[in-house]
Amino acid sequence: MGSYYEQVGAATVREVVDRFYVAVLADPELQPYFTDVDLPRLKRHMVMLLCSVLGGPEVYEGADLADAHRDMGVTGAHYEKVGSLLVAALREQGAGEDLVEHVVTVLGQVRGSIVAQPAGAAG
Ligand code: HEM
């Protein structure tokens, strides 16, 4: 049995990431975060990250997730929204539920690096 990456392939991951950012940018609450962002670069980094999370050979070369989202003030509610849009994009491209579950687990693991900590909180 192959990796999740072998189940879907890099082309599908690219399609997922394209559709994901279309959905993110269509959301009036999320759109303001992405003003002035180099979208092709962001997509390229998200594709690498997702491929490696799925067990592919790609090496993530973007910024550390905590550094990339520092001072952005990402709220928990916005994090859940973005996570749901990623899951929806995966399902739309035919990802199986085992793959989706794996991504949801990873989303839980990186949440603390992306969501802004309340002032005074450790870490
Ligand atoms: C759900 C999990 C998330 C993952 C896995 C993720 C992943 C990433 C990655 C890989 C980058 C690229 C870093 C780089 O280019 O070096 C990035 C950048 C960015 N993320 Fe996220 N992100 C997530 C959630 C969010 C949320 C919830 C928001 C805002 C609502 C957000 C807003 C941004 C913005 C605006 C950038 C661009 C930063 C810049 O290039 O200046 N992200 N993210």
Automatic annotation (TrEMBL):
Keywords: Heme, Iron, Metal-binding, Transport. CDD domains: TrHb1_N. Heme binds at H45, H69. InterPro entries: Globin-like_sf, Globin/Proto, Hemoglobin_trunc. GO terms for molecular function: heme binding; metal ion binding; oxygen binding. SUPFAM superfamilies: Globin-like. The keyword Transport applies. This is Hemoglobin.
